[in-house]
Design a protein that fits this description.
7 strands
Length: about 150
Protein backbone atom coordinates (compact mmCIF):
# COMPACT_ATOMS: atom_id res chain seq x y z
CA UNK A 1 0.00 0.00 0.00
CA UNK A 2 1.26 3.49 -0.86
CA UNK A 3 0.22 6.34 1.40
CA UNK A 4 1.38 9.68 2.76
CA UNK A 5 3.90 9.35 5.57
CA UNK A 6 3.06 10.14 9.19
CA UNK A 7 5.13 11.14 12.20
CA UNK A 8 5.13 7.49 13.30
CA UNK A 9 7.00 6.61 10.06
CA UNK A 10 9.92 9.03 10.40
CA UNK A 11 12.51 6.73 12.01
CA UNK A 12 11.77 3.91 9.56
CA UNK A 13 11.97 6.32 6.60
CA UNK A 14 15.33 7.64 7.79
CA UNK A 15 16.65 4.12 8.34
CA UNK A 16 15.58 3.03 4.83
CA UNK A 17 17.02 6.10 3.12
CA UNK A 18 20.29 5.94 5.02
CA UNK A 19 20.73 2.24 4.19
CA UNK A 20 20.87 3.34 0.53
CA UNK A 21 22.96 6.42 1.33
CA UNK A 22 25.76 4.10 2.50
CA UNK A 23 26.25 3.17 -1.18
CA UNK A 24 25.88 6.80 -2.35
CA UNK A 25 22.62 5.91 -4.12
CA UNK A 26 20.87 8.85 -2.38
CA UNK A 27 21.81 11.58 0.03
CA UNK A 28 21.58 10.65 3.70
CA UNK A 29 18.79 12.26 5.70
CA UNK A 30 18.91 13.25 9.36
CA UNK A 31 15.90 12.66 11.58
CA UNK A 32 15.46 16.42 11.67
CA UNK A 33 15.40 16.60 7.87
CA UNK A 34 12.79 13.85 7.60
CA UNK A 35 10.62 15.48 10.28
CA UNK A 36 10.89 18.91 8.62
CA UNK A 37 10.02 17.47 5.22
CA UNK A 38 7.54 14.82 6.36
CA UNK A 39 4.71 16.23 4.26
CA UNK A 40 6.82 15.59 1.16
CA UNK A 41 6.98 11.82 1.69
CA UNK A 42 4.97 8.91 0.36
CA UNK A 43 5.74 5.43 1.64
CA UNK A 44 5.17 1.88 0.48
CA UNK A 45 4.05 -0.19 3.44
CA UNK A 46 3.50 -3.91 3.79
CA UNK A 47 2.67 -5.69 7.05
CA UNK A 48 3.28 -2.44 8.96
CA UNK A 49 6.85 -2.21 7.61
CA UNK A 50 8.14 0.45 5.26
CA UNK A 51 9.84 -0.95 2.17
CA UNK A 52 9.87 2.11 -0.06
CA UNK A 53 9.63 5.87 0.00
CA UNK A 54 9.83 8.90 -2.21
CA UNK A 55 9.34 12.61 -1.69
CA UNK A 56 8.10 15.54 -3.72
CA UNK A 57 9.80 18.71 -2.51
CA UNK A 58 8.72 22.12 -3.81
CA UNK A 59 11.87 24.04 -4.69
CA UNK A 60 10.85 27.06 -6.71
CA UNK A 61 8.08 28.65 -8.72
CA UNK A 62 6.47 25.85 -10.75
CA UNK A 63 9.30 23.43 -9.92
CA UNK A 64 9.48 20.47 -7.55
CA UNK A 65 12.13 17.86 -6.90
CA UNK A 66 11.56 14.13 -6.71
CA UNK A 67 13.97 13.00 -4.00
CA UNK A 68 14.84 10.19 -1.62
CA UNK A 69 13.25 7.54 -3.86
CA UNK A 70 14.29 4.15 -2.52
CA UNK A 71 12.78 0.68 -2.54
CA UNK A 72 14.08 -2.16 -0.38
CA UNK A 73 16.04 -4.66 -2.47
CA UNK A 74 13.52 -7.45 -1.82
CA UNK A 75 10.77 -5.32 -3.38
CA UNK A 76 12.63 -3.92 -6.38
CA UNK A 77 11.35 -4.83 -9.84
CA UNK A 78 7.73 -5.06 -8.67
CA UNK A 79 6.54 -1.61 -9.80
CA UNK A 80 6.81 0.02 -6.38
CA UNK A 81 9.31 2.67 -7.47
CA UNK A 82 7.11 3.53 -10.44
CA UNK A 83 4.05 3.73 -8.18
CA UNK A 84 5.85 6.05 -5.76
CA UNK A 85 6.94 8.29 -8.64
CA UNK A 86 3.37 8.34 -9.97
CA UNK A 87 2.03 9.41 -6.55
CA UNK A 88 4.55 12.24 -6.46
CA UNK A 89 3.59 13.33 -9.98
CA UNK A 90 -0.10 13.17 -9.08
CA UNK A 91 0.54 15.43 -6.09
CA UNK A 92 2.59 17.81 -8.23
CA UNK A 93 -0.39 18.15 -10.57
CA UNK A 94 -2.71 18.83 -7.61
CA UNK A 95 -0.30 21.54 -6.44
CA UNK A 96 -0.21 22.94 -10.00
CA UNK A 97 3.54 22.45 -10.30
CA UNK A 98 4.57 22.52 -13.94
CA UNK A 99 7.88 20.60 -13.83
CA UNK A 100 9.39 17.91 -11.65
CA UNK A 101 13.13 17.37 -11.69
CA UNK A 102 15.51 14.91 -10.10
CA UNK A 103 19.17 14.07 -9.93
CA UNK A 104 20.04 10.43 -10.53
CA UNK A 105 22.59 7.88 -11.65
CA UNK A 106 19.72 5.65 -12.85
CA UNK A 107 18.47 7.66 -15.80
CA UNK A 108 17.07 4.62 -17.64
CA UNK A 109 14.41 4.02 -14.98
CA UNK A 110 13.25 7.63 -15.04
CA UNK A 111 13.37 7.89 -18.83
CA UNK A 112 10.76 5.09 -18.96
CA UNK A 113 8.57 7.27 -16.73
CA UNK A 114 8.73 10.28 -19.06
CA UNK A 115 11.66 12.20 -17.62
CA UNK A 116 14.18 13.73 -20.02
CA UNK A 117 17.81 14.52 -19.32
CA UNK A 118 18.70 18.22 -19.12
CA UNK A 119 21.84 20.21 -18.45
CA UNK A 120 22.23 20.77 -14.70
CA UNK A 121 22.90 24.44 -15.43
CA UNK A 122 19.31 24.75 -16.69
CA UNK A 123 18.02 24.27 -13.13
CA UNK A 124 17.88 27.13 -10.61
CA UNK A 125 20.88 27.46 -8.28
CA UNK A 126 18.55 26.98 -5.31
CA UNK A 127 18.39 23.24 -6.04
CA UNK A 128 22.04 22.79 -5.12
CA UNK A 129 21.50 23.48 -1.40
CA UNK A 130 21.46 19.73 -0.65
CA UNK A 131 24.29 18.95 -3.05
CA UNK A 132 26.90 20.84 -1.06
CA UNK A 133 26.38 18.26 1.73
CA UNK A 134 27.22 15.37 -0.61
CA UNK A 135 30.66 13.77 -0.53
CA UNK A 136 30.67 13.77 -4.35
CA UNK A 137 30.18 17.54 -4.62
CA UNK A 138 31.21 19.17 -6.95
CA UNK A 139 32.30 16.14 -9.01
CA UNK A 140 28.88 14.54 -9.16
CA UNK A 141 28.09 11.62 -11.48
CA UNK A 142 24.36 12.24 -11.37
CA UNK A 143 22.40 13.59 -14.28
CA UNK A 144 19.55 16.07 -14.07
CA UNK A 145 16.20 14.99 -15.48
CA UNK A 146 12.94 16.89 -15.86
CA UNK A 147 9.35 15.95 -16.58
CA UNK A 148 6.81 18.50 -17.79
CA UNK A 149 3.52 17.70 -16.14
CA UNK A 150 1.20 20.40 -17.40
Amino acid sequence: MIRKATVADVKKIQELINSFAKTNAVLPRSLNSVYENLRDFFIFESDENIFGCGALHITWDNLAELRSLVVHKEYQGKGIGKALVNECIKEARQLQVKKVFLLTENSGFFKKLGFAQVDKAALPHKIWSDCVECIQFPNCNEVAMVKDIE
